[in-house]
Structure formats: structure tokens, C-alpha cells
Amino acid sequence: MISKRMEKIIESGAAMAGLFTAGDRLAKRFGAENVYNFSIGNPNVPAPESVKDTIIDLAQNMPEQALHSYTKPEGIPDVRKRIAEHDRKKFDVDLSEKNIFMVAGAAAGLNAIFLTLLDEGDEVIVPTPYFGEYKSYALSCGAEIVEVPTQPETFELDAREIRKAITRRTKIVLINTPNNPTGVIYSEESLRDLADVLNEKNNDLGIDITLVSDEPYRDLAYAGARVPYIPKFYDNTIISYSFSKSLSLPGERIGYVTIPDSVTNFTEISAGMVTACRVLFVNAPSLIQRVAAVCIQDECDVEYYARNRDAIYEGLKEIGYECVVPQGAFYLWLKTPIENDFEFAKKAEDYQIVVVPGSAFKGPGYVRVSFCVSHETILAALPKFKELFDDIRAGR
Amino acid sequence: MISKRMEKIIESGAAMAGLFTAGDRLAKRFGAENVYNFSIGNPNVPAPESVKDTIIDLAQNMPEQALHSYTKPEGIPDVRKRIAEHDRKKFDVDLSEKNIFMVAGAAAGLNAIFLTLLDEGDEVIVPTPYFGEYKSYALSCGAEIVEVPTQPETFELDAREIRKAITRRTKIVLINTPNNPTGVIYSEESLRDLADVLNEKNNDLGIDITLVSDEPYRDLAYAGARVPYIPKFYDNTIISYSFSKSLSLPGERIGYVTIPDSVTNFTEISAGMVTACRVLFVNAPSLIQRVAAVCIQDECDVEYYARNRDAIYEGLKEIGYECVVPQGAFYLWLKTPIENDFEFAKKAEDYQIVVVPGSAFKGPGYVRVSFCVSHETILAALPKFKELFDDIRAGR
After folding, report:
1. Do B3 and A119 touch (CB under 8 A)?
2. Which residue in A49, A252, B37, B181 has a CA-CA distance of 20 to 30 Å to B379?
3. Across B216-330, where does the E strand assignment appear?
4. How confident is the model at residue A255 (pLDDT cuts 50, 70, 90)?
């Protein structure tokens, strides 16, 4: 028999799993080429050319044994150094090799952070809507997710709601910026408010909440938007980053966790993190660690996503839909013109459109429209979105 | 503060960590080139040429987006199929794609199995001596390791000792064959005895123990030895395999878990395993999954290890040491000529020799001698081993 823990994880995922499979169902109904599938969150632009060149270069020129050998659990020293240098300049902060921990993707990174910090019964506060897998990571550790709302309409952090949810068992507040599914980048103001609340509650309750910022979409930001560097607002912040989107390498499982010097008990936490990496995945994949370090300056074609974002946002607004402006990531958060998001998503299928009901992210009344699709798909889908909208308005 | 769980993991590792760092200490004392370091368990032969060729071929010829995209959590269907075909022929058993789960290395594989099966307070029986990291995997799940002795001198499984240790909380018996640190391949006879005990206890206690066989050294077997295919002896067996040693790819984190049809509640267990892969590491690294499938017929230069094994075993025996014959893996288990293995390892340092005290594996009175070193190191070290032996015998 499977463990009770695993039963809970499966149960928590099962409610949502079905919501992501409408694409397949619809492909059978209309033929795959006739379906506008906005339900998938996978990068659709290729990795930059430098990734291919670096893989070939390393394979051809580096002795196999060195290339494929175990690395330290926290990663290859030169790789960590290169990343620290890059981020030091980019964010104008003090960082060195010792602050960077290479991880086998963001999921492994979050699991490692959770294993380092969480005991049975501990609480992780997450603003809704949110990426459902966070719950699985918490359940793996026997910890609990405490959901709090964001601000209505804007989906900005709501520090007052977070304050209400904090208890002595609160170990982590987990935020995700740019956000999946809303595309919102949390503002400096909202982060200042959050920091005030966390500091206040730490003092009141004699606790020390870790703010964990999950930032796999950090380099997908549009129209000049910049993602604030969270440790500048709150000392006890750990960042999880992934190259899945910036280098279009989601299958390769490579990212890093930043633990700045300002984190409470830095020495102990970083020792815990090294151990967690060793125990969970031994080390991040060695070849790809090197590729990430060489290619960190490069980026996939973010302009492609930007063009998609403009087309779908402007197009849907013009039709009459209410949408949150996607500041980052490759998701548009659309308010459903009929209240029930399941009903709307179901009705959209009749127009060959696949979107994910917001309820899958604990955000009812909205759907997530992924724009990591071909630009042509967007252009071709807009008239269908219009038909759908007009029919709903006309009560058809 | 780090979690209590992590405190326990660090504490359990700390006792041993120091035992693996003597090499660095000695390198400072004598100069690295003057140290015979037999403490490290890393492959020292390069990956087969086909690995390099396949990496370059895939990078050059496969579209980047397909090559680096997410795969299913359980792995790429064609990769799983290829591995199932290979093992079906090799072991003459019934296997297909659905029995193979690609994992990000054996550690991730064991973590996934544990997450699928173990709850807080469950027990995992492990014969001693054993690879200490097993304890970390169990602690991560809040489970406990129950250590049982193997047979004296031979280090074969001792089914009677395992019988004594089984309780209603026993979920897993975890074996490792060929064994790290002893080099023993568990015999068919000992596996039959083990199966009898497990079946008996399952009936008596109304439980269903899973036998987990960790086999990263399966393809390093010497002098015609073969590693028995464990599910042939006991139905409810799950195998964890890694390409780290057979393809000398330890840093790339690639392996697979085999869940045969005969496993109790196959459907439920395999659904749990898929979920565990998704939650812990999303998918095994995608490029290297493909490399493993293409290169599965190939092998690193196992003959090199075989030659090392003969040289060190014969050499040490001739000097007068008592050693267990290494049937597989790249470790020799040497009975220390002074009773205390710490003392012996310490004394060996004066002869520029680094070995790991058996106590690090809960096997006192022995040391582990890794022979994944250059052949020249072995030849040069043997006279030093002799000096050491003679001096101990002479009471010097």
C-alpha cells in the first residue's frame, strides 16, 4: 500500500489533474491542428544557440571523467562563482559563491529548502492563486499550506491577510513573482508592507519566518518591468531560481537557490541546504551546471513572448474581456464573463479553445491563458475568443 | 532554525563525514602525489566513447525544444521501452515500458520509493554494513532504519536476523547487491531464505513487506559472477538502478526504478511512483535520459576494475591480510589486523594509505578499500600495505 502521505499528495493533485487534460480531449474532437491550446506552461521558444554550442564544446573538449563526475552537493565552485558574479552585478547586491546552491530544478530546490526548514505540522503561507505543486512539496514534509487571498482585481500581495494567517507554527511565507498563474510582479510597495508585517509578527511571536521567493519566471518581464530583489526588503529571504524558462531548458532540471548572508543563522541554514541537496539529488546534473554558467548572460527569445503578450492582452481587452496585465511570466489571468470558471472553460471548448479554470490554482472566477504558444495560434484564436464573448453576452 | 528532521540527518552524517576527509588531510602532510587514497567511491574510468558521440549527435541533430523539454515524470516513453527491452532479454523476465521509471539518479530513485511507501514511524530494515545515506533517506520521510547483522565473515544476508527484526511497522527491507562496502553479491540461496522469511512474516503479521534492492553496482561483477534478479525470488520487489557506474556518469544523475507486475498493488504503487518523481524532481534530466537509452548496451571499462580487484585482493592476501573476496562493486572489505578499525585507519595514514574505517558503515573491525583508483596506485601501495602489516605484527 502507498503511504498516507502519498495518498494525500495524489488526492490534492487529482482534483486538478483533469483540468490540464482538456487539450488532449479536444484534439480528439476537432483534430489537434484545430485546437487553440492555451493550457500548457512549457517554453515554446528554443534554447539560445549558445546552449547547443556549449554542450558540444564541453563534450568534445573536456575529459569525460571530469565532465561527468560527481560535483559537490551544492554545485561546482566555478559555476557558483560565475552565477554569484552575474547576480551581484545584475541586482547590485553582495553575493559570492557561498550564497549560491545549484539545484536540480526549482522543484528540487523548493524540496531542499522545505527539507531544511520544515517539520511535521509546520505551516507555509501561500497567497492565492498559486501553483498547486507547492502543496505537494509541503505534504512531502508533513507540513501544511495555509492559503491567503491576494488583493481583489490586482492580485497584489495583501500584507494584512498574511498578518491574519501567521501563527507560531508559521515557518515560511512562499511567494512566486512573476506569478503563475496571474502574471503579476509584486510591487516594491507590497513587498515593503509584507516585510513590515513579517518583522512585526517575528517580534510579537518570537519566531523567525523565512520568506521564500520562487522566481522561475524572473527573466520573463515585459514593457520594462523589473522584478524587485526580495532580500533588499526582508533580510530572512531565500530565492529559488530556475533556468527552465530563461534558457528554455525545462527538461534538464537546472536552477539555483540563493541564500544571502542576511538570512538568519546563515551558517546553519546553508549547512542544512548542502545536506538537503546531497540527500535529495546528490548534485545538480554536472554537464548542465556548466552549460548554465557559460550561458547565463544569454537568454531565450523573450521578445517572442513579449509580442505574444501584447497580442493576446490587447486582443482580449478589445473584445471586451477583463484581464490582469501580464507583467511577467507567460500567463494571462482572465476574468471569466460568466461567474463560474469551470463553466466558462467548458463553453470555450466548443470554440476549440483550451484554458485552465482558475479554480485549479484556487482562483475561481478566472481562467489562466498561457501565451507560450505560436504567435499564429494567438492571432487565429482571437476571432474565436470574440465569438465566445459575443455569444455569452447575447445569452447564447 | 533548521528543522528537527534536518538536525537528525546532519547528526547522523556528521559522525561519518570526518572519516571520508582523511585523504585531504594526508595530501597536505605528504603531498597529494604521495598519498595512496583508497577512500573514494567515484568511478575512475571514463564513460564509453558512445556517450560523447551521443551527446554531440543529439545536440547537433535534435531540435532544441524537443531535446530539452519536460518529459513525463516517469520518463520518455521510448527510453523506458528501450530499457525494458534490454532488461527483458538480459534477465529473461517479462518487462515493458510500464515497469520502468526514469529517475534522477539512485538517490532520487530511493527517495521516490520511500516517499511512495513510508509514513512517519515506519521501519526500514537494512543489513549491516551499509551505505550510510540510506539513513538520511529514511529520516527525510520520518521513518526509521532498523539495522540487522549479516553473517559473520561472509557478510551474506542473514535471514534469521531479518526475521527477528520484522515488526508490524516494517514496510521495507532494503538490500544493496553488489554491496557497498563489502563487495558481496547476495547468493541465490540467501535470497531464497530471505523470501521465505518475508512470506512467512507477511502471513503471520498481515503485512506486505516491500523488498527494495539498490543495485548501482549491478554491472560491476567479476570472475563470471552474476547478480541474481531479485523479483524472481520474491514478488514484491522493487529495484533501483543507476547508470553512474556502468556508464561512468555519476554527476549526471540518471538511473531507473523497476517495478515489476508482480509487485503488490502494482497500479497504485506505480501511480505513487509517478507522483513521487513529479514532486521530487519533475523528470530525470532529459538529454541524459536519451543518452542512457542509446548507450545501455555499452559499458565503461569494467575490465580495468577487474584487473584492479585481482591485484589488490591477491596482493593483500599474499601479505597476510584477511579480506572478503570482492565479487562486485569496486570495494574490498579488509579485516583489520588490529581490532579497532579507527586505530588501524589512523595507523595506515603513517604509511600514506587512506582507507575508510568500517564503523562508518556500521561494520567495525574492517576497513573499506576502494579500488576505483589507477592500477599504478595499487601496485605502488602494496609494499606500503606490507610494511604496515609487518609493523603491526611486530608490535611496532
Report:
1. yes
2. B181
3. 237-242, 255-258, 322-324
4. very high
Quote the pLDDT of residue B24.
85
Inter-chain touch B283–A251, beta carbons under 8 Å: yes
* CA angle A204–A209–A214, rounded 5-degree value: 150
What percent of chain B shows pLDDT beyond 70?
99
CA–CA min distance A244, chain B (Å) = 9
Q: Which residue of A has its CA nearest to B263?
A: A1
A249 to B4: CB separation less than 8 angstroms, yes or no: no
Q: pTM of the prediction?
A: 0.97
pLDDT of B201-249, one tens digit each?
A: 999 999 999 999 999 999 999 999 999 999 999 999 999 999 999 999 9
The answer as to CATH 3.40.50.920 being correct for domain A4-45+300-393 is no
Beta strands A170-176 and A210-214: pairing type? Answer: parallel
The beta-carbon neighbor of B282 closest among A107, A118, A287 is: A107
* Any B CB within 8 A of A239 CB: no
- What is the amino acid identity at position B156? E
Angle between helices A49-61 and B49-61 (to 10 degrees): 160
Pick B249's closest partner by Cβ from A51, A68, A104: A68
- Does any CB of chain A come closer than 8 Å to the CB of residue B120? yes
Q: Which of B43, B119, B288 sits opposite A5 (nearest CB)?
A: B119
Give A13 to chain B, closest Cα distance, Å: 9
Closest to B82 (Cα-Cα) out of B71, B97, B93, B69: B97
CATH code of domain B49-295: 3.40.640.10
Residues 6+ apart with CB under 8 A from A43: A244, A245, A248, A250, A300, A330, A372, B65, B69
Query: Is the preceding peptide bond at A129 cis, omega within 30 degrees of 0?
Result: yes
Cβ within 8 Å, pair B253-A104: yes
CA distances A369 to A153, A334, B378, Å, are 16, 7, 63
Q: How many of the other CB atoms lie within 10 Å of CB of B298?
A: 14
The C-alpha cell at B305 is 576494475
Contact predicate A173/A158, CB 8 Å: no
Residue contact B140–A1, C-beta within 8 A: no
pLDDT bucket at A25, cuts 50 / 70 / 90: confident
The answer to whether A25 faces chain B, any CB pair under 8 Å, is no
Domain regions of chain A by residue span: 4-45+300-393, 49-295
> Are A250 and B69 in contact (CB < 8 Å)?
yes
Q: Which residue of A has its CA nearest to B140?
A: A115
Say if domain B4-47+300-393 classifies as CATH 3.40.50.800: no
Cis peptide before B178 (omega within 30 of 0): yes
